[in-house]
Design goal:
heterodimer; A: six-stranded mixed β-barrel; 1 helix; B: 288 residues; mainly alpha; 4% strand; rod-shaped
């Protein structure tokens, strides 16, 4: 009898322990899920989540504008407009439920239904995202413009929107199908591609020596001003390519246009080595006296210009298949 | 000496087959001859024994004439049934074979059926051949493009002053034309065009372009608006024209670094264009 009672007690203890563990786990999961969902202010359609300084923020929009601003707080705040609601889905890489998020996905509700549909990019409202200064953003949009400022890394893609990028210090990767790209006062590796829009780059520089700058537009113009990279590429298929500003010692500037002109406007004291090629019928106009190699073609040969001005500190490779190449003094 | 009766005569005496006169002389003899009487007793004993043993066989009656008639009737009936069966089989066979007899009203039908069967067989066989060939890995054969034999490249263009009739000098450029020597096929008597040798590094560009073009085609109809598509087509025309022109220059003067650079730049432009299109298609797909 005693034996049976003791057995019953032990079994009961096991059941209680199991139930308790299950209940606690459920609570923890609830807590975690609570942190992963949005926190909604009552007055505005906002959501805020604690984040790491180098948090990665992902958003896919439809036709609304996207504004991204870096701020001093280690938080990601999303503010939506026009009656829509925003949701932040945070991912944390440790068990501590109070730890800040290292990756956040932003979602906007769809229309009047107020329901979130993960993976769809159909919202029409604008959104403002405030992220830590060291954050990186990955934004895709169908038709909206994107403005990014004061963050570390930006990866932007749009089918029919323009980009305005400022003070991004880390890396910039932008791809616009039918819009313009404007990049100012930024640093790090830069890759810009525009199908039918123009590209304007001003006051950019590298952080590491291996950083490079590449700006390619198929139909639009490419304008590069005050670029400080060891390797600069500016290409356009049917537009013009222009380079302004001081040449950096040891840098190579490769500027190419298929049917447009290539124009270089640099200080008179610049020192460079030049290789310029145009197809027969094109023209090379050079304001600088060029010292040519002994085996070079005569000066009147307008199809090729190879030589050195000054001590040849930089290298200019200029190609225009059916346009004109200009080397002008500033 | 008296003669004894032989065994045959005694057997006949017992069977009742002797004449009357001989029978009386046998009886008179048996009355006076003990030895013959003893032989007669032995013969009678044998006869009785045989009769007892053969009695069942001896009791069978010989079939009568009516029975013979019945048997004959049965046999004849049996023979008639056999004949009927054979006639049915023949009838069936004849009916069957009559279908294959070429009658005028069936000729067209037969011809159509045979033709349809033949066409179907040919079609099936052809399909099977195609499937078999499609599954085969056809090995790639690298064909070495023959080198153009041409006259040496002349000196570059130089200005040669010439005097006009009125005494003034003009500067004209003296161009030496480079004739591309074409090999003549002695057998046919016609000229052959030889594909020029590719430049160093050109192959990688062409392969990259081919790969990208194939990828763009496989992606199907691009999800671009009409204005954007027009932009793409325009750029493609520009870059293809540039490639054609620069190819001519480079092939004409393969040692001209400038011509080669222009050609490679054109190739790179096409690669940029195809990359951009491919990337745009992927972006469009991801936004759906």
């Amino acid at each position: 009898m005693k034996f049976l009672i003791s057995k019953f007690v032990i079994a009961l203890l096991f059941v209680c322990a199991f139930t308790s563990a299950f209940a606690q786990d459920k609570e923890k999961r609830k807590e975690r899920n609570k942190d992963f969902t949005y926190e909604n202010d009552k007055d505005k359609n906002t959501a805020t989540v604690a984040a790491t300084p180098n948090v990665a923020v992902i958003f896919c929009g439809g036709s609304g504008r996207i504004y991204v601003r870096g701020w001093e707080k280690n938080e990601v705040r999303a503010v939506s407009e026009e009656g829509s609601k925003v949701k932040l889905i945070a991912i944390k890489h440790n068990e501590d439920v109070s730890a800040p998020a290292s990756q956040i996905t932003v979602q906007l509700t769809e229309g009047e239904s107020g329901r979130f549909h993960f993976g769809r990019c159909e919202n029409k409202s604008n959104i403002e995202l405030y992220v830590p200064r060291g954050a990186s953003v990955d934004l895709r949009t169908r038709e909206g413009d994107i403005s990014v400022e004061k963050i570390a890394k930006a990866k932007l893609r749009s089918m029919n929107g323009s980009f305005s990028i400022r003070n991004v210090n880390g890396s910039v990767q932008a791809e616009a199908t039918s819009g313009d790209i404007a990049l100012d006062d930024s640093s790090g590796s830069i890759t810009l591609n525009a199908l039918s829009g123009s590209i304007d780059v001003r006051n950019v520089k590298s952080i590491e020596p291996v950083d490079s700058m590449s700006a390619v537009s198929l139909s639009g113009d490419v304008t590069l001003e005050n670029t400080n990279f060891l390797r600069v590429e500016g290409h356009s298929n049917s537009g013009d390519v222009m380079l302004f500003g001081k040449l950096i010692k040891g840098s190579t500037y490769s500027l190419r246009s298929t049917s447009g002109d290539v124009t270089i406007i640099i200080p008179a004291a610049s020192s460079f080595r030049v290789e310029a090629y145009v197809l027969h019928g094109g023209e090379i106009i050079c304001d600088f006296p060029i010292t040519k190699p002994t085996n070079n073609k005569p000066l009147k040969d307008t199809t090729k210009l190879v030589g050195t001005h000054g001590t040849g500190d930089s290298t200019l490779i200029l190609i225009s298949v059916s346009g004109t190449i200009h080397l002008r003094k500033k | 000496m008296r003669e004894h009766i032989d065994e045959g005569t005694l057997q006949s005496y017992l069977d009742g087959e002797l004449s009357h006169a001989i029978q009386e002389r046998v009886i008179l003899h048996l009355a006076s001859c003990d030895e013959c009487a003893l032989m007669l007793n032995d013969a009678q004993d044998e006869l009785e024994m045989l009769s007892f043993a053969l009695e069942p066989a001896l009791s069978v009656t010989v079939p009568t004439e009516s029975l013979r008639e019945k048997i004959n009737l049965a046999v004849s009936q049996n023979q008639q049934i056999q004949v009927q069966k054979e006639s049915r089989l023949r009838g069936f066979l004849s009916a069957l074979t009559s279908s294959f007899v070429l009658k005028p009203q069936f000729t067209v039908g037969f011809a159509a059926v045979i033709l349809a069967v033949l066409i179907g067989a040919v079609f099936l066989f052809a399909n099977r051949q195609d499937e078999r060939l499609a599954g085969m890995d056809i090995p790639k054969i690298d064909v070495e493009v023959p080198e153009i034999t041409s006259t040496p490249t002349p000196d570059p263009v130089r200005n040669v002053p010439a005097k006009k009739g009125d005494g003034t000098e003009t500067t004209t450029a003296e161009n030496r034309k480079v004739r591309q020597q074409r090999p003549v096929d002695k057998n046919s008597g016609t000229r052959k065009t030889v594909t020029p040798r590719r430049l160093e590094g050109e192959k990688s560009y062409l392969e990259a372009i081919a790969t990208l073009e194939k990828a763009v085609v496989e992606q199907g109809d691009l999800d671009m608006r009409p204005t954007l598509r027009a932009e793409y087509e325009k750029n493609l025309a520009v870059v293809d024209k540039a490639i054609n022109e620069t190819q001519k220059q480079a092939r004409k003067n393969p040692k001209d670094a400038g011509a080669v650079q222009l050609l490679y730049a054109s190739y790179q432009s096409k690669i940029d264009l195809l990359n951009a299109v491919s990337s745009q298609t992927q972006l469009s797909a991801s936004l759906k």
